[in-house]
Design a protein that fits this description.
- InterPro entries: Peripla_BP_I (IPR028082), SBP_2_dom (IPR025997).
- This is D-ribose ABC transporter substrate-binding protein.
- By secondary structure, this protein is α/β, with parallel strands linked by helices.
- The chain folds into two domains: 32-131 and 270-294, Response regulator (Rossmann fold, 3-Layer(aba) Sandwich), CATH 3.40.50; 135-268 and 303-313, Response regulator (Rossmann fold), CATH 3.40.50.
- Helices cover 48% and strands 19% of the residues.
- It contains eleven helices and twelve strands.
- The strands form three sheets. A six-stranded parallel sheet has the order 2-1-3-4-5-11, with helices on both faces. A four-stranded parallel sheet has the order 7-6-8-9, sandwiched between helices.
- Helix 3 packs parallel to helix 4 (101-109), helix 5 packs parallel to helix 6 (166-179) and helix 7 (197-210) packs across helix 8 (222-234).
Length: 315
């Protein structure tokens, strides 16, 4: 009887030791954070993605970047892979304000918090938090400067971003809330170029054929501003047409310094990315009370203050 008891105690002790070792090893494994980005075909989003991943790693987590290539179907694949592979949080830059909701809800159902960066989804309950540039206010400021630079008159073109992205319309509405009050400022064309440099160049080249007398182009991001400028150079109009952008990308800030681009709105992708990673860290540690939307201010950069932003744009 004593021998049987000794054997049972020995087996129980072994199970306890093995069990505690298993728990220790599992606890030592760092949590994984997925950084799912709308596209890496834009340097601005590369900064957003890499900063988010770097901050997550600095906080002690594994991090992997996924490129959705502006494709909601590919974005869905990334979410499914992230959930199946045991990622504990998603730092997310959506491809579509409506189309991306289902992916965020899928993660939420799986117990995976989602923190949106720069772009939002049209659901107040889907994401744990959304850290967003104040695009509307930023473009109100640009709109006022646009009116001044145009002396309240002239023909202009607007290049829109992705039609499914709320930032596209927030920027456009902010701009028009000012500019539309001046009847001698006439928009002769408004067309999407998907936030893409090459597409913006092609779109503006086409518009210029019918409207060679425009005097300004307002672009919903800096990639399109650079594409528009290239089209104007090719048409011999670079010195006659004023280009306005939005993002604060390094090449555009440099172009403002050189007098090629008139102004842009300086966003802070690193602030948004680092905040999202920090929120994920706080979530893992038990916090649940996050702001549903956290606005990040946008500052206008022009010829007068560009020297103050040269280093900011590099970083």
């Amino acid at each position: 009887m004593r021998n049987k008891l000794t054997i049972l105690l020995s087996l129980l002790l072994t199970l306890l030791v093995v069990g505690s070792c298993g728990k220790k090893n599992g606890g030592d494994e760092p949590k994984k954070i997925a950084v799912i980005i709308s596209t890496l075909n834009n340097p601005w989003f590369v900064v957003l993605a890499e900063t988010a991943a770097e901050k997550a790693r600095a906080l002690g987590y594994e991090a992997k970047i996924f490129d959705s290539q502006n494709n909601t179907a590919l974005e869905t694949d990334h979410f499914e892979n992230a959930i199946a592979s045991g990622f504990s949080a998603v730092l997310f830059n959506p491809t579509d304000a409506d189309g991306s909701i289902v992916n965020v809800l899928k993660a939420k159902e799986a117990g995976v918090p989602v923190f949106c960066m720069d772009r939002e989804v049209n659901s107040p309950e889907a994401a744990t938090s959304q850290i967003l540039s104040d695009s509307y206010s930023g473009c109100v400021t640009i709109g006022k400067y646009f009116v001044q630079q145009m002396n309240k008159k002239g023909k202009y073109v607007e290049l829109l971003g992705l039609v499914g992205d709320n930032n596209t319309w927030a920027r456009s509405k902010g701009f028009h809330s000012v500019v539309d009050n001046y009847p001698d400022l006439k928009m002769v064309a408004q067309q999407s170029a998907d936030f893409d440099r090459n597409k913006a160049m092609e779109v503006l080249e086409s518009i210029l054929q019918a409207n060679p007398d425009i005097t300004a182009v307002f672009c919903g991001n800096d990639a399109m501003a650079m594409g528009a400028y290239q089209a104007l150079v090719a048409a011999g109009l670079a010195n006659k047409v004023k280009v306005f952008g939005f993002d604060g990308a390094q090449d555009v800030v440099g172009s403002i310094k050189e007098g090629k681009i008139v102004a842009t709105g300086m966003q802070y992708p690193k602030v948004m990315a680092q905040t999202a990673a920090t929120f994920a860290d706080e979530y893992f540690k038990g916090k649940r009370d996050f702001p549903k939307k956290m606005p990040v201010a946008v500052e206008m950069v022009n010829q007068q203050n560009v020297s103050d932003y040269l280093e900011v744009a590099k970083n």
